[in-house]
Task: structure prediction
Amino acid sequence: MHRTRRLRNSNSLRRLVRENQLSVNDFVYPLFIEEGENIDAPISSMPGVNRYSVDKLPGIMDKVAAARIPAVLLFGIPASKDEEGAETWNDEGIIQRAVRYIKKDYPQVTVITDVCFCEYTSHGHCGVLVDDYVDNDLTLGNIRKQVLSHARAGADMVAPSGMMDGTIENIREALDANGYPNLPVMAYTVKYASAFYGPFREAADSAPSFGDRKTYQMDPANSREGLLEAEYDDLEGADILMVKPAMAYLDVVRALKENFNKPIAAYNVSGEYAMIKAAAAKGWIDGDKVMMELLLSIKRAGADIIITYFALEAAGLLNKVNYE
Ligand code: PBG
Result:
């Protein structure tokens, strides 16, 4: 008889042979920052997640810092939108002011900026439209402007999420040529055209006004194509490779981990968060336990970094001495 149960006999023994452990060090906490004042507004489809104006950031940043979460990922909601998303490269824009604010008062927290246009364009697409098609190369020029503005504001890392070809190479060149050779790039490398982004689009007011994102985001049916995306981002100089969403794409997380020797990030997206919150609110699942199991599964699949709206809650549990 092969008795694999022997090593499950006690909690201490299970701890001893445990293969993977979640840590607060794994987490990145996304923040929605809105133009205006005195805003601390709940997002209905993401219970526990709010939109903040810059002046209201201390409330949440104090918690992030106290929990020792290493990084935040910033999304901006501007006061006005236009065809190209020109607010994204305004040095006085919402993200730029938020970066300066956080870096001044919370220098120990790494500030990562999402680099995209969908929250800033009147049509909600992630770039410049030509005949209702997102023009790749015109968008690259605007990405350079946006990234340099984030760099000037003091961002510690930039994370382009628009899935335009050549993005990483362009960003790396722009940063290196302008005095930011040490600013790392976290690439949204394998980003799928996913229905799991629904709550985020409500939160960030970024749903496309027509069509979908299938001509730039990846087909959920494909995984080899994800390796190709990763190969290009790797060669172009990405420092961290991300898979998004996480839960339904853990095979892709594992594939990247096995094939690339750079840190792998996974984005546990809004729809994954919303499903767990909704089922827990109905009493159908134990929300805390399902949250920890899901985050652990993302880690087990190979993620070194987990971007998650659960970061604060999960850190709260991990920071309790006796959590198992
Ligand atoms: C694009 C962006 C999106 C998300 C992160 N960056 C939305 C999209 O691609 O439509 C989704 C994140 C989530 O669902 O939590 N700027």
